[in-house]
Amino acid sequence: GQQLKEANCINRSLSSLADVLYALGDTQAGGTHVPYRNSKLTHLLRDALGGVGGRTLLFAQVSPDPTDAHESYSTLAFASRVASVQKGR
User: Fold this and answer.
1) Contacts of 31 (CB under 8 A, 6+ apart)
2) Residue 50: how many CB atoms within 10 A of its CB?
3) Neighbouring residues of 86: CB distance < 8 A, sequence distance ≥ 6
4) What whole-number distance in Å separates Cα of residue 33 and Cα of residue 11?
5) Which of the 8 DSSP states describes residue 39?
6) pLDDT tens digits for 43-84?
7) I need a labelling partner for 75 at 20 to 30 A (CA). Which of 8, 27, 58, 60 fits?
8) Which of 50, 51, 47, 44 is CA-nearest to residue 20?
9) 60, 78 contact by CB (below 8 A)
10) Which residues contact residue 40 at a Cβ distance below 8 angstroms, ignoring those fewer than 6 apart?
11) Residues 6+ apart with CB under 8 A from 61
12) 63, 16, 54: which is closest to 36 by C-alpha?
């Protein structure tokens, strides 16, 4: 019930964050629109993510517990997707 709703909201926010990071990485290639308003998270982090001199560091926390394997895999997949994004290079 409630945990599933919360997990869905978190996943949507993380997906929006990944979209913003990819768009920021693509701005050097042709001025792509950056979808900051797709979630509250990215809207609030706008200056930190894309502001002048802004730098972002992502920490991914995983669990060694076998019952958390699916969540750990999802976390690592997300981290892998955004690890290759570099703004301004």
Assistant:
1) none
2) 18
3) 25
4) 22
5) S
6) 998 888 877 777 778 899 999 999 999 989 988 988 887 787
7) 27
8) 50
9) yes
10) 13
11) 75
12) 16
Assess contact for 34 and 50: CB atoms under 8 A.
yes
Q: Using an 8 Å Cβ cutoff, are 71 and 57 in contact?
A: no
| SS3 labels along 58-89 | CCCCCCCCHHHHHHHHHHHHHHHHHHCCCCCC
**DSSP designation for 6:** H
Single pTM value for the model: 0.69
Residue pair 49/38 in contact (Cβ under 8 Å)? The answer is no
